[in-house]
C-alpha cells in the first residue's frame, strides 16, 4: 500500500492518496466497435437494446424502468453536483502525473444487446502506456471499492482494448487510487448479467434487488407496478 500526500487547490484540505492492489488476467476476444465510425441514421435504425456499462449489477427492475421510462426518473440534483465536483478534483489530480483524454462513447455488440459507455478518462502514463480511469465521488471511503465499480471499469477496458486502469474514489478529504487489470472472468460475468436481465425483461418480470430500493430513482414508479 502506497500512501502519498498531495495538495489540491480546488479542495479545501490535504488529500490522502492510497495506491492499492491489482488482480491479473488476460484479454479475451469479442466484438468492439467505436461508434463514431457508424453514421447516425444507421445507429438509430438498429434496434438492439443498449445497456450502459454503468448499470452493471444494478437492480434488473431499475434497468427495465430506465429503458422503458427514461423521462420518469427522479434524479437527485445533489448527487449529480457531487459527481461533477469529484470529476473536477480527479482531473486536477491526474493532470499532475498523466496526459489526460476524456473518454469517448464506445460499444460492445452481442447477439441481442449492446453494452455502451464512456470512461471518465483515458490517461497516458509516464511509461507511455494508456490506462482507463473511472472516478467515484463518495461521502467516505469504504474498505473496498464496490464490485460494480470494478466491473464497470473492466467493461471500459474491454471497450478501449486497454488492459489496465484505476478507480479514483474522491471523498471530502481523501483520494484513493485502486489499480486493476482487465479480468476475462469478470467480463464474462458482466455479459451474462446483461443477458439474464434481457431475458427477464422479455418475460416481463425483472427481478428486484431490494438492497438498492432505499435510494432508487424509480421507487415512485416501481412500487405500484408489480
Ligand atoms: S425500488 Fe427497488 S426493486 Fe424497484 S427498481 Fe428501485 S431498486 Fe429495483
Verbal overview:
This protein is α/β, with parallel strands linked by helices and 226 residues long. It has a single domain (2-207), classed as Lambda Exonuclease, Chain A. Helices cover 31% and strands 26% of the residues. The chain contains six helices and eleven strands. It has helices at residues 40-45, 60-68, 77-95, 147-160, 184-202, 219-222; strands at residues 2-7, 14-20, 32-33, 49-52, 99-102, 106-109, 113-117, 121-124, 130-137, 164-170, 174-181. The strands form two sheets. The chain has a seven-stranded mixed β-sheet with strand order 1-2-11-10-9-8-5, sandwiched between helices. It has a four-stranded mixed β-sheet with strand order 3-6-7-4, covered by helices on one side. Strand 6 (106-109) and strand 7 form a beta hairpin. The longest helix is centred in the middle third of the chain and has 19 residues, at 77-95. It is globular, with a radius of gyration of 18 Å. Mean pLDDT is 83; it is low at 1-29. Iron/sulfur cluster is lined by residues 59, 61-62, 65, 208-209, 212-213, 216, 218-219, 222. Iron/sulfur cluster binds next to helix 2 and helix 6.
Secondary structure layout plus pairing:
Elements: E1 2-7, E2 14-20, E3 32-33, H1 40-45, E4 49-52, H2 60-68, H3 77-95, E5 99-102, E6 106-109, E7 113-117, E8 121-124, E9 130-137, H4 147-160, E10 164-170, E11 174-181, H5 184-202, H6 219-222
Parallel strand pairs: 2-11, 4-7, 9-10
Antiparallel strand pairs: 1-2, 3-6, 5-8, 6-7, 8-9, 10-11
This protein binds iron/sulfur cluster (SF4).
Amino acid at each position: 500500500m502506497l500512501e502519498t500526500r498531495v495538495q489540491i487547490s480546488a479542495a479545501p484540505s490535504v488529500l490522502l492518496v492510497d495506491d492499492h492492489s491489482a488482480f491479473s488476467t488476460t484479454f479475451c476476444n469479442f466484438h468492439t466497435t467505436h461508434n463514431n465510425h457508424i453514421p447516425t441514421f444507421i445507429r438509430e435504425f438498429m434496434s438492439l437494446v443498449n445497456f450502459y456499462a454503468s448499470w452493471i449489477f444494478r437492480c434488473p427492475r431499475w434497468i427495465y424502468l430506465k429503458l422503458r421510462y427514461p423521462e420518469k426518473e427522479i434524479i437527485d440534483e445533489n448527487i449529480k453536483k457531487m459527481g461533477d465536483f469529484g470529476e473536477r478534483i480527479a482531473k486536477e489530480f491526474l493532470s499532475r502525473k498523466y496526459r489526460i483524454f476524456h473518454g469517448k462513447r464506445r460499444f460492445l455488440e452481442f447477439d441481442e444487446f449492446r453494452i455502451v459507455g464512456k470512461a471518465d478518462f483515458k490517461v497516458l502514463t509516464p511509461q507511455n502506456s494508456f490506462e482507463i480511469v473511472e472516478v467515484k465521488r463518495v461521502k467516505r471511503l469504504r474498505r473496498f471499492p464496490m464490485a460494480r465499480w470494478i466491473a464497470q471499469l473492466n467493461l471500459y477496458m474491454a471497450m478501449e482494448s486497454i488492459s489496465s486502469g484505476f478507480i479514483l474514489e474522491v471523498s471530502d478529504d481523501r483520494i484513493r487510487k485502486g489499480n486493476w487489470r482487465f479480468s476475462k472472468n469478470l467480463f464474462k460475468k458482466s455479459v451474462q448479467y446483461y443477458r439474464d436481465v434481457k431475458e427477464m425483461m422479455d418475460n416481463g418480470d425483472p427481478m428486484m434487488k431490494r438492497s438498492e430500493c432505499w435510494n432508487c430513482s424509480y421507487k415512485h414508479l416501481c412500487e405500484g407496478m408489480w
